[in-house]
Amino acid sequence: MSIVPLSTADLPQAVELSASAHWNQNADDWQMMLALGEGYGIHAADEQGVQRLAASIVLLPYGGRFAWVSMVLVWPTFQRRGLASTLLRHALSQLASRGMAAVLDATPAGYDVYVHEGFKPTWGFARYRRERAAGALVVEAAPVTCPLRDAHWSDIEAIDALAFGASRLPLLRTLAARWPAAARVVEQCGRVRGAMWGRTGREAHQIGPLLADDLPAAQALISHALSAEAGPIYLDLLDERRAALLPWLERQGFVLQRPFTRMVWGADNAPGDTRRIWAAAGPEFG
Ligand SMILES: CC(C)(COP(=O)(O)OP(=O)(O)OC[C@H]1O[C@@H](n2cnc3c(N)ncnc32)[C@H](O)[C@@H]1OP(=O)(O)O)[C@@H](O)C(=O)NCCC(=O)NCCS
Q: Which domains does the chain have, with CATH numbers?
């Protein structure tokens, strides 16, 4: 079974593959990832003898120091045959030849595969889901938010690069167009003190990344997105923000889904500085 680069021709099967693991990515997510990075896959004949995308991996280079590893997926009937490890080793050898580290957000199912390949755990976060809007939003005294405008991008790039550990402007600009109602900022005296993005998904909208100086700014940004969308919403809350934000999120109807662990390979620590991060962009983007 050979490893081949993924192209837009693989999109329908790539969406089937992520849906087989009950993941939320839609064709726009896969398209974004293939545009911003590089995807690899293994095709194989399934139980009916039909050739299908049996396994995938995506590398998203963020600057020259590290790449994000995402979409490590194996079709259920091909699991435990070494496909994920094969793709991971291929990806890591590419990164090693470029002198780059690898960073990813592991599900509990993927954790052992990554430890096996030398990844180390760093901090964690957990996914929460609000099923649908019910009743009035509980909003405490919150600052005003405004739509993200061109003038905000230089501030935002600096804040995000510090928090995330590399500039990811192309990703953030694409997200701003994916769910415009969620792409907002909190400003004070002309300075951005909070910014948030979101996107549509296969079965729910997703909030994130969310960067804010303080709790009121974070709540104000989330509130706006919650009032704009009545359907299911995911938010990936950092463990270190749980005590501050979770009680309020629970009052909005959010319920725990599953934990994730940020893991690194070829570096000692996760890049960036988490002090301003409230919600991650999601395991596929960081
Ligand atoms: C996690 C996943 C990618 C593993 O793919 P895979 O091709 O089955 O993994 P491999 O066969 O390469 O496994 C390599 C090693 O990882 C460990 N491993 C893999 N799956 C495991 C599981 N379900 N439980 C415990 N250990 C597991 C084992 O040590 C395994 O080696 P072994 O089979 O020799 O014991 C696959 O189960 C999957 O797609 N799951 C759903 C999506 C997901 O959670 N992806 C991870 C994203 S972070």
A: 3-123 (3.40.630.30), 126-279 (3.40.630.90)
